[in-house]
Design goal:
Number of helices: 9
CATH class of the domain at 8-133 and 219-288: Alpha Beta
Largest sheet: 8 strands, mixed
CATH superfamily of the domain at 8-133 and 219-288: Alpha/Beta hydrolase fold, catalytic domain
Number of strands: 10
Strand order of the largest sheet: 1-2-4-3-5-6-9-10
Helix content: 25-40%
CATH topology of the domain at 8-133 and 219-288: Rossmann fold
Strand content: 15-25%
Structural class: alpha/beta
CATH architecture of the domain at 8-133 and 219-288: 3-Layer(aba) Sandwich
Length: about 290
């Protein structure tokens, strides 16, 4: 990346929050927005953006509570909040036509819902690991227990202090623990943009700890599938073969889409675009018809 000038930083507002995004230029090209996952940041897309910027005007936001965006007072980090924020970003950018949306994990869930609720605004969609948790991870418990657990979690998070790392290298080790597939180069790049330097010289993750809170409301697969069924544009659903995300054909989630292609990339976990970048880009190029 040394011979490439990086993106410029910009801000927009949503629900009185000042939210950050990076812009890779080439405004004369069609707009593509890249949306990261939970406890991640906009610069996790850099290696993807460097390739796709030849074909698109690439913009990548920091979701609220992440990266260089404001933290939400009260911990309002539901997927509906992020869907609204994405729409406000699109309004700020004033695209001349429908846009291409690419998302990972939480970000993939966000772009899928945006495309389902406002189908005319989206030209094509790529969702990496974005269909929610597999059925085995959704434990049916009484509503009052889930609410009690959420209250307990929020009280605990109020007392939680950001973890401090003495060096970038220590933070990078934690990054590679979370994703063993990462190369040393990728882990260092992601870590540099994931942390802020504290006044005492240590480093802490940029994301708000309240983003860790688990909603007291169960993942509503019925509502999600109804929204997915309204997506009109071509959709590419990408998963890693060693991910925890589940088999979407077997559990019926794929049936909700009018026109979706499912691709499973080998030797990749949840962060497919990090684990197998070249293969992921090849799939994207074919799907979007890029030369």
């Amino acid at each position: 990346m040394a011979d490439i000038i990086g993106p410029t930083s910009h801000f927009f507002y949503s629900q009185r929050l000042k939210l950050h995004y990076v812009d890779w230029g080439n405004h004369h090209l069609p707009l593509a927005i890249l949306v990261h996952g939970g406890r991640d940041h906009s610069r996790n897309w850099d290696f993807v953006a460097l390739d796709l910027r030849r074909h698109f005007h690439i913009v990548a936001p920091d979701l609220r509570g992440h990266g260089d965006s404001d933290w939400a007072i009260g911990g309002a980090y539901s997927i509906t909040d992020h869907v609204l924020d994405l729409g406000q970003l699109m309004n700020a950018l004033e695209p001349q036509g429908p846009v291409t949306l690419i998302g990972h994990s939480l970000g993939a869930g966000v772009v899928l819902q945006r495309a389902g609720v406002f189908p005319a605004a989206v030209k094509a969609i790529v969702a990496i690991e974005g269909l929610g948790p597999p059925g085995a991870m959704i434990r049916e418990t009484p509503a009052h227990e889930r609410m009690e657990h959420w209250v307990t979690d929020m009280l605990a998070l109020a007392q939680r202090k950001p973890r401090e790392y003495q060096t970038i290298e220590q933070a990078m080790e934690r990054m590679r623990e979370a994703n063993p597939h990462l190369s040393a180069e990728m882990a260092r790049h992601l870590t540099i943009y994931s942390v802020r330097r504290n006044e005492n010289g240590t480093f802490s993750w940029k994301y708000d700890n309240y983003t860790r809170a688990t909603s007291p409301f169960l993942f509503n697969l019925k509502d999600a599938m109804e929204i997915w069924s309204r997506i009109q544009c071509p959709a590419l659903l990408v998963r890693g073969d060693s991910s925890w995300a589940g088999d979407w054909e077997r559990d019926g989630r794929l049936d909700a889409f009018r026109a979706a292609e499912l691709v499973t990339i080998k030797n990749a976990g949840h962060w497919v675009h990090h684990d197998q970048l070249a293969e992921f880009l090849a799939v994207i190029h074919r799907f979007l018809g890029l030369s």
